[in-house]
DNA sequence: CCACCCCCTTACAGAAAGGTAAGTACCGCA
DNA sequence: TGCGGTACTTACCTTTCTGTAAGGGGGTGG
């Protein structure tokens, strides 16, 4: 999986934090996981319309390496894998909440709308979806 | 300047906010501008070691379009252009502060270090440089 | 007169990120 | 036998991002 040497030397905390959340779907994965607590691969896939299996796997692996996501594999008959946030993932989500509020505000000002996402219920207030 | 159709429909506030700060130097530009209030092109250039003129111009233009940065041109003998944060830029910076704190904390936990940057003094505490 | 500084712009090229499509291995259902 | 579901992997291609190099118009200093 020819991926990310990252964790490069950072110039400041923002730099370090952005490194970990930049990626087309990472914010959304955090969001889904925060909203539902625990999700399986296919559930996440359905929750992030437009994501490909490759990108989802790749992002989840990177987030696992970064210590944001916990991956629990059950060696069962139909394979079952459950994803959830680690403590770091939860604190990151909290740290992102003010950024989310800023973004929501901005969308309101600019008259932009959110896109409809099937199957997303009970969004945490902090995410301002 | 064949650039960014962006401002695409967003899924949540995080999405919208990340769209605006993602870019190799944008976090740092915000930081420099926050730290110094007003900066000229060449000052920013010297403050972001490694940035090319092209990237700096490009990022500054995008941030101007996004309403984060104010660009004041003085039609003087040696041309003078001053950059500063707009109100939106300042609130974005505030919203980023908790993310910066998270990142700083994370670097501490992981034993990562920041890179030395010549000429950066008086970093705002919120940025946790 | 020529280089140099200012603040860019343009053209070109490489790297990285993201997308598409197919394949893997196993099972249940009809 | 064939399809669908589970959770991926792999190869290949396109798009986006970033970097390198050079030019440009105007004025100042040597």
Automatic annotation (TrEMBL), chains A, B:
SUPFAM superfamilies hit by this protein: Winged helix' DNA-binding domain
Domain HTH hxlR-type: 12-111
InterPro entries, alphabetized: HTH_HxlR, WH-like_DNA-bd_sf, WH_DNA-bd_sf
Molecular function in Gene Ontology: DNA binding
The keyword Transcription regulation belongs to this UniProt entry's keyword annotation: yes
Record's keyword terms, sorted: DNA-binding, Transcription, Transcription regulation
Taxonomic superkingdom: Bacteria
Listed PANTHER family: TRANSCRIPTIONAL REGULATOR (PTHR33204:SF29), TRANSCRIPTIONAL REGULATOR, MARR FAMILY (PTHR33204)
Listed name of the protein: Transcriptional regulator
Native species: Streptomyces fumanus
